[in-house]
Structures are given as C-alpha cells and as structure tokens.
Amino acid sequence: MSRRTVDQRAACSVSALPRERPDVRTALPAAGLPRRSRDELLLAARHGLDEASLAQLPGERYALAHLAALRAAAAVLADRAQASPGHRGRPASAWRLLATVAPELAEWAQFFASGAARRAAAEAGLPVVGTRDADDLARQVEIFLAVVETTLGLPSQPALPAMLVGSASPSRG
After folding, report:
1. Which of 42, 63, 90, 125 has the smallest C-beta neighbourhood within 10 Å, fewest atoms?
2. Bridge partners for 27 per DSSP
3. CA-based angle 124:159:46, to the nearest 5?
C-alpha cells in the first residue's frame, strides 16, 4: 500500500470518528488495563514519538514509534474501559482490547498488531527494518495519535513540521 493511500485512509478515518465520548465503559479483565491515566499515556506517547524522531538507528526508531502507538492505544483503554469484577484474567493484546473498546480504531489496531513481531525483533537488535520502514511507521503513528486524540474528544497536538521524521530542516541564509 502506498504512503498516499494510507494517508488518504487516515484522513478519511479522522473525519468519520465520533466526537463524543461514550458514557458506558467496557468491562475488561484488570490484567489488560493500563495503570496510568489517559493523559499520562498520551503524554508518554508524544514523548516516545519525539524520541523516535531523534533515534539514529532505523530499528530503534521503528521500535520507539511502535511503542508510542501502543501508549496511545493504552490511553483509549484507560479512558473507555474499566476492570471487570472478579479475577484479573489473562493478559491480552492491547491491540485486541483496543478493537473491542473502540471499534472505530479496529483497522489501526490490526495495522499495529501486524508490526508487533517486527518491533520485538528490532528491539532485539535484528536488522528487520530499514530507514524507510522506520520513517513510514513514525508518520503513521503521528496520524494515529491525532486520531486517538480526536476519538477521545481532545484537541490534537500535531508535531511541528521540523520535528517530523524525515522532514528537512529550514536552511539558514
């Protein structure tokens, strides 16, 4: 899929998102829920994306960007889910839980879940991603983070163009 196609899909999905938070929270096993607040997780996601933009190695940039997306997903879980009464349950994939709690983000959840093995390999230092893969993922995470903020009814905080991975810095004359 070309970058243009993915960016067009993302733009369409932003406009189709509901603007209000649901009143009912989904009950999930406590083992799948984040321990931090929605706002803490969104801040950590932004910070992680900033870290990814500064990473020199493509594998490190890819892993940091993917983890930023995971934190954004956890922010949705923190906002829309509550611990179900009873036992803690087995840990579940955050991406699976995200699709349950926010069906409008199911396609994003599937996209990021498909990259989890690559992230793990990149974290282990294996040469599984190139520069373009890492840059593309960082751009997708930036879009996803904006979609998450919109889904949660928050103003999106897009990065400045000079901060985006792969952007040229302004020349000084």
Report:
1. 90
2. 82
3. 45
120-158 pLDDT per residue, tens: 999 999 999 999 999 999 999 999 999 999 999 998 765
Give 45's DSSP letter: H
Note the pTM of the prediction, 2 decimals: 0.74
Residue in 104, 100, 99, 35 with CA at minimum distance from that of residue 71: 35
57-113 pLDDT, tens digit per residue, is 999 999 999 999 999 999 999 998 887 666 566 677 899 999 999 999 999 999 999
Provide the angle, in degrees to the nearest 10, between the axes of the packed helices 106-113 and 58-80. Answer: 140
Q: E strands along the chain, which residues?
A: 26-28, 81-83
